[in-house]
Amino acid sequence: MSHIDYLLHESATGYALFKVVFQQDDLASRMSEVKEAAEDLAKFGKMVSLTSYAVWRSAAEALENIHSVSEGIMTDYLKSTIELNVPASKKSKVVLGVADRNLAGNIKAAFPGIEAETSDTSEAVAYLLRGIRLHSSKLFKNLNEGDEEKAQLGLGHAYSRSKVKFNTHAQDNHIIRSIATLDNLDKGINLFSQKLREWYSWHFPELYAICSDNLTYATVARFVGDKSTLGDDKLHELAGLVGDDEEKAAEIILKAKMSMGRELGEADLENVLSFAQKVQSLAVGDVVAARLIQKAGSLTNLSKYPASTLQILGAEKALFRALKTKSNTPKYGLIYHSSFIGRAGNKDKGRISRYLANKCSIAARIDNFSEHPSKKFGEALRNQVEDRLEFYATGKKPIKNADAMDKAVADLLAEGESMAIDTDMIDAPLPSNAEKSKKEKKSKDKKDKEEKKDKKDKKRRHSEVKDTVDADAEVEGEKKKKKKKRHSEA
């Protein structure tokens, strides 16, 4: 585009339309002067002139228009401003410079005689709009000094408050941010754990292979301390630190007695154990639910997922690879880190992951759509998963889902908590017209069923008659063939 006729500037005080003073052919050839003039008010004031300045009539109108501009929507106020101040030309289109690309597209659609250019499509528009933003307080002659800055500050605060207040996912933002922080924390924990393993391995190298989990390693290292003090009398306590596994605890004691590690000084050992304490304090427990919310984007999005999608959430690459190679699809994604799946046997991990995903889906919908969230349903669903694990292990029949939910509702109402349900309408009788329409519907359904049955009977009788006729015709044909054969033999 070789020329720019007008420029639209959305300020904190209103819409401003500037006319470009340069001739059509001058702007493209004098681009270097445009760049320099954007920094100098004396030169820039000769390039553009203020044509119209539509000031906001209230703070609410300012906020509404700024919201629309940020989303690329043209308001009626802006439309009327352009209609009144940008003349239509029958010979050629008028070129209007706009900052936002989406807003430019809406202006072009509303005004066929206007060609909207943005900083992405025209370098001249970018420098001219930059000059207007830089010198706006001087170009708007009706404003006092400092008015523009005050308006920007007030409108900025109002815009930010409205965005935070009306964000539908605001309740999930703290969870998503926390998980991002935990991810960064995990990187630090892994680095610290590696250093701890390296330092403590000088004293007790055999522990490295026995304890693969970082948190367990730090806990056991703090408990053991000097390996020469570890004896059989500490077997029970040590087993509690490694998941009640007495065999692993006995192995640690045996390896400590036969360890080839060197002895550490008192000060060195104290520093290593102090570092192990820091690693242990930084470690975070189970955060599977929060990671599911982060992966889905919000609790609302997670509640809309079916259980089958929630089950493999986080394993999308493995799923698409399996579909491409026509191999087995993954059984779990992020929920693999749940303790329930870890406690299940190898043959039951797929089944318990399906069951767990189903309960997680139900829990997400209850938490998202309940006006008064309660822990009762979550505890009931958790107990159901526990019962299912016990069923896989011992064969004990678990409680039915309907019975578990009924018990949770009863416990909730017994404690006086509200379920946001209009209990007055539960047993209310239907209106007379509703009963009448219900009866009419039943009679109509009965009539339709009878008609369908009659049609089926007619078809069946027709097919039976047809089969009989075909059979008679076939017998008659056989008789004729035999008669003809005897006649030929004679």
Automatic annotation (TrEMBL):
Domain Nop: 275-394
SUPFAM superfamilies given in the database record: Nop domain
Cellular-component GO terms for this entry: box C/D methylation guide snoRNP complex; small-subunit processome
Biased composition (Basic residues): 480-490
Subcellular localization: Nucleus, Nucleolus
GO molecular function annotation: snoRNA binding
UniProt keyword annotation of Nucleus present: yes
BP GO annotations: ribosome biogenesis
Protein name: Nucleolar protein 56
